[in-house]
Amino acid sequence: MTFELAGRIEVDKIVMMSGLPAARQGDLMPNWICYTVSWPEELKGALDYQWNEVAIPYWRTLVRKAEEVGVQRIALENFSAQLVYNSETLLRLRSAVGPRVGMNLDPSHLMWMGADPICAVQELGDAVFHVHAKDTRFESAAAQVNGALETKPVELVTARSWNYVAVGLGRGIDWWKSFIYALKTSGYDDFISIEVEDFVLGQRAGLQASLSVLEQCLFAEE
């Protein structure tokens, strides 16, 4: 329905997530496998099932639907608990189903995963279809004790190892200038969408803080 509506109103880009299959046929719960498949041995079979029996056939069908209705770009957010969550998994799906699939690059998720969003931009190139502006701050006391894997609700700011914050409150303005510059270098010329999930500042103040930083990072054309 979303793709059909997009075609009717001549929207050529849809931003969404990849989805996450269960680990085997008959399971009802999605299963995010983000640990080595060396052990337990069942994990390798589960990952093969998710990709080859569920996700790739599903996405081939969806890409054909997009082509039929005129949707040119499907931007998948690199979110945790999704089958596509980083550059490697995005490129794996893109290789299997074609270049209509690209990334909605959200640097905040890559930050807590330990990846460098600037390197991700360079790796993905023209496969970056959309960008979220959101930051991540590590809470050093909890992170040093418990590590970066975090299951507590995002509202429990003081208990977590890391938190989503307004742009500039995790990485400084110099980092964000480098990130925007990398996007421009790669040829990206589309929206940078501010996403506010700062539970300390709230929506309005978080938006204002993010906008203030980004305005100093954008490069105006002559």
Short structural summary:
This protein is α/β, with parallel strands linked by helices. The protein is 44% helix and 14% strand.
Give a quick set of tags describing it:
222 residues; alpha/beta; nuclease; five-stranded parallel sheet; two-stranded antiparallel sheet; globular; 7 strands
User: Main beta sheet, described?
Assistant: 5 strands, parallel
The portion of residues forming beta strands comes to 5-15%
Q: What ranges have pLDDT less than 50 throughout 5 or more consecutive residues?
A: none
Question: Could you tell me the mean pLDDT?
Answer: 97
Number of domains: 2
SS-based structural class?
Answer: alpha/beta
The CATH topology annotation of the largest domain reads as TIM Barrel
Give the count of helical stretches: 8
